[in-house]
Design brief:
Helices cover 49% and strands 12% of the residues. It is elongated, with a radius of gyration of 28 Å. Strands 5, 6, 7, 9, 13 and 15 form a six-stranded antiparallel beta sheet that branches. The protein has three domains: 2-213 and 221-344, no CATH class; 370-472, no CATH class; 474-605, Galactose-binding domain-like (Jelly Rolls, Sandwich). The relative contact order is 0.08. The longest helix has 46 residues, at 329-374. It contains 21 helices and 15 strands. By secondary structure, it is of the alpha+beta class. The protein has helices at 2-19, 30-35, 44-52, 62-76, 80-106, 109-121, 126-130, 135-153, 156-166, 176-187, 199-212, 228-241, 256-277, 282-294, 312-326, 329-374, 387-394, 413-416, 433-441, 459-469, 529-532; strands at residues 379-383, 407-409, 445-449, 456-457, 477-479, 496-497, 500-502, 506-512, 520-526, 537-543, 546-547, 551-553, 559-565, 575-582, 598-604.
Length: 605
């Protein structure tokens, strides 16, 4: 008993030794979007919508994203430690399951130790171990491993519970029937019929997901069902082996990574072929695990990510775990040394780097919170934001989580940050040049530079230099929730509420003109779902008196996004007026205001 416990603790100890910086890592990227879900819950209806409404790419992950982030945020706020402890505990459970499954299949205690050790040592796990949004991979792995372990033990009822719960963690859960069927056909033929009912929930979930997922015409999530799948598979294979990833932390000799990858691939291929000649099908099952769990993301040619290898790498770890005790001791020891020699330093270095990067975000949030205390009535501009800080710490709007509004980037940021339209538009976060100059002149703006241990107030310096760099032009993006842009709105608009404003039956907005004929007008807004039960709302839009096609807000469009082709006559104009009119308004009980639609942003791009 003591020996067995000690062997199980070895992978756990390695996990802590490698990834301990991940225990104190701060929130990054998508974390802020999921944390923000709690801010929009005011009723039971809001809660159920936040838990189960399809979101990015039509995903529905109530356990691994919605409940995880909303629950821990309500209990612990922005303290990341409880989040991270829970992730690590889930990974410890996964290590135990990998050990138990490998030992049961191979009938080897040594293989049962090596498999979880090799898995947790693989540097492809860095995202899961240092990024809270990666929890969906850890939790899905837990459900897949739990269901499969129950299948091995003949606990079919428990298998079904784990399998069905897995659909709330990650879409990859649909492949579980293929895993169970592959095992039965290769290693336990009499039980293959027991896997057939498992396919029904997976087929149903796939059809449901396809109905919710938005149609993709381009971008990184476009599926490429062609021969490029094999190129993507080759890329993932090199990543999961480890040597090529050494280039992420150093510059090794050009021949080193290809030579080491070739050595590992050749060694595993020869060993698998030897096992097959002896009619030992276990290595084929471990390879099947790798391929089956990776297959759903192989068509995403333009969105390859090591994050997707978290679950497939379990198959490789079990494969090498078996080889560690059945292959030639010298050869297997050499292969494992090569594998660990490349993966361990990458995992260790990447964990430290992710921790350091995350705390830059934490310092920025603390600085903005302090700036709001010092300047409660002023708009805050951040200067010197680079690509890394923007895409990891600002893109997903973290400032709302600390109760701070009216935070923007300086106008120069639009040129300094590399555009990535597939993630979002930098202009959504930048204060335009004209309002910046006006706000500075009126003393309504404070400017802070980021990049150091703390934010630095550079308002006076920026005031002195900005007239030489900025132009007093009409902005081509009008955020109606920004008080500095209120001068661009007609007199009929109601007072702003958070990040939006209500219009009555009719309203106007002035905005900077298009520079080319390809630019369009984009409008975003909001309409309460309960009002749409009375029927759709029709919106008439005109620009400088020229009507554009009528738009409709209907059920399912509580948040709407319209875009319009602009008349060619507007190209080159300094500005033009947008007139808006709705065919129905309402008056909330006890409010007294006539409300048409709530708008957020008008933009020409």
């Amino acid at each position: 008993m003591i020996r067995a416990a000690a062997l199980w603790l070895v992978p756990v100890a390695v996990c802590l030794a490698l990834y301990w910086p991940g225990l104190t890592v701060f929130f990054q990227q998508d974390d802020f979007a999921w944390l923000g879900l709690s801010l929009g819950i005011y009723s039971p209806r809001d809660f159920w919508r936040a838990m189960f409404a399809p979101m990015a790419q039509g995903t529905i992950r109530p356990w691994s994203e919605r409940a995880f982030f909303m629950g821990f945020y309500r209990l612990f706020g922005l303290d990341p430690l409880p989040f991270r402890i829970w992730v690590f505990l889930t990974q410890f459970a996964n290590l135990a399951l990998i050990a138990a499954i490998t030992r049961r299949i191979t009938v080897s205690r040594a293989a049962g130790v090596w498999a979880p050790l090799l898995w947790i040592s693989n540097s492809v796990l860095i995202s899961v171990m240092t990024w809270s949004s990666g929890y969906n991979q850890a939790l899905c792995a837990f459900f897949l491993l739990s269901a499969f372990y129950c299948f091995l033990r003949g606990w079919y009822g428990r298998q079904w519970i784990a399998f069905l719960l897995g659909f709330g963690a990650l879409e990859i859960n649909v492949v579980y029937p293929a895993i169970a069927t592959a095992y039965a056909l290769l290693l336990d033929r009499p039980r293959w019929k027991k896997t057939l009912p498992l396919w029904l929930p997976s087929i149903a979930f796939t059809l449901l997901h396809r109905s919710f997922a938005p149609k993709v015409a381009g971008g990184p999530y476009l599926m490429h069902l062609d021969l490029s799948i094999f190129t993507t598979l080759g890329k993932y294979w090199l990543w999961v082996l480890g040597p090529i990833r050494l280039e992420n932390i150093t510059t090794p000799p050009a021949w080193l990574a290809p030579a080491a990858s070739t050595l590992l691939t050749a060694g595993l291929t020869l060993w698998v072929a030897r096992c097959v000649r002896r009619r030992d099908w276990k290595p084929l099952f471990f390879l099947a695990w790798f391929l089956i769990t990776l297959a759903p993301v192989l068509p995403l040619r333009d969105h390859a990510s090591d994050y997707y290898l978290t679950i497939p790498s379990i198959g490789l770890a079990m494969l090498v775990g078996q080889a560690a005790w059945t292959a030639n001791r010298i050869v297997s020891s050499l292969l494992i040394l090569v594998y660990l020699g490349f993966s361990l330093p990458v995992a260790r270095t990447a964990a430290r780097w992710s921790n350091i990067r995350s705390h830059r975000i934490e310092r920025m949030l603390a600085g903005v919170a302090r700036a709001r205390q010092l300047h409660p009535d002023k708009l805050i501009l951040l200067h010197g934001v680079n690509d890394e800080l923007f895409y990891t710490g600002i893109l997903d709007k973290p400032f709302r989580l600390i109760g701070v509004a009216d935070v923007y980037l300086t106008p120069e940021s639009a040129e300094r940050i590399t555009p990535k339209p597939e993630l979002g538009f930098v202009t959504d976060y930048v204060l335009p040049q004209g309002p910046t100059l006006a706000g500075l002149a009126q003393g309504r703006i404070v400017v802070y530079e980021v990049g150091g241990e703390r934010l630095k107030n550079i308002t006076r310096l920026y005031e002195a230099t900005s007239p030489l760099q900025l132009k007093a032009e009409e902005p081509r993006r009008v955020d109606v929730g920004n008080p500095l842009l209120a001068y661009l709105l007609g007199k009929s608009w109601h007072a702003r509420e958070a990040a939006y404003r209500w219009m009555p039956g009719r309203a106007t907005v002035r905005i900077g003109g298009p520079r080319t004929a390809r630019e369009r007008l984009y409008i975003t807004g909001y309409y309460p779902a309960e009002q749409l039960e009375k029927g759709p709302v029709h919106v008439r839009v005109s620009v400088d008196g020229q009507p554009l096609p009528e738009s409709t807000v209907q059920r399912g469009m509580e948040r709407f996004d319209f875009d319009y082709v602009l008349p060619a006559a507007l190209v080159g104009k300094a500005s033009f007026e947008i007139a808006l009119e709705v065919d129905r308004t309402f008056t909330p009980p006890g409010d007294g205001r006539e409300l048409g639609l709530a708008f957020g942003v008008f933009e020409v791009r």
